[in-house]
Design a protein that fits this description.
Blueprint: H1 2-21, E1 33-39, H2 44-49, E2 54-60, H3 64-72, E3 76-78, E4 88-89, E5 95-102, E6 114-120, E7 122-124, E8 138-140, E9 143-149
Antiparallel strand pairs: 1-2, 2-9, 3-5, 4-5, 5-6, 6-9, 7-8
Length: about 150
């Protein structure tokens, strides 16, 4: 009887460990197409203290909600403080839907080295890299998966 309980506990612990602290692995949403890859601009001070984030953008015609559901099964969803989970309105009156997912054990996006933003419509900034809702070249009616990766590789 004791051996059976110990075996069950061991299996439960093995299944629970990944959810407790191992970083998730990024997977491209099925059918998404690579849109762009670039490194963001950094100030001189930032360049001395951290690696420039690599930004990888994928797009899909699938619904925002389908893409969000896919990543909920892979990574930890992060809610931006103060947004209340409500979509923002663009100057055109169109709703801007966004969701964030963290792939490492960081507490928030500012300390994370690997996270994504899912956005619909996609505010295509081109390579300007301006602020969060700064200049953008066009609004595209697609769902974007914007991956930010600051991890170091050997």
């Amino acid at each position: 009887m004791k051996r059976g309980i110990i075996r069950i506990l061991a299996v439960v612990m093995l299944l629970a460990l990944p959810a407790l602290g191992f970083p998730a692995s990024f997977k491209v949403y099925p059918g998404a197409k690579l849109e762009d890859v670039y490194e963001t601009k950094q100030s001189e001070i930032e360049a001395k203290t951290s690696k420039a984030p690599k930004v990888i953008i994928f797009t899909t015609n699938d619904f925002f909600e389908n893409v969000v559901a896919f990543y909920r099964g892979i990574a930890r969803e992060y809610r931006m403080p103060g947004t209340g989970g409500k979509p923002m309105k663009l100057s055109s009156g169109q709703e801007l839907k966004e969701a964030y997912f963290i792939f490492d054990n960081a507490a928030d996006l500012s300390t994370s080295k690997h996270w994504i933003k899912i956005q619909r419509p996609y505010l295509d900034k081109g390579r300007s890299g301006d602020s969060l809702y700064g200049k953008y070249e066009k609004i595209r009616e697609v769902t974007a998966i914007i991956e930010e990766d600051k991890r170091s590789y050997p």
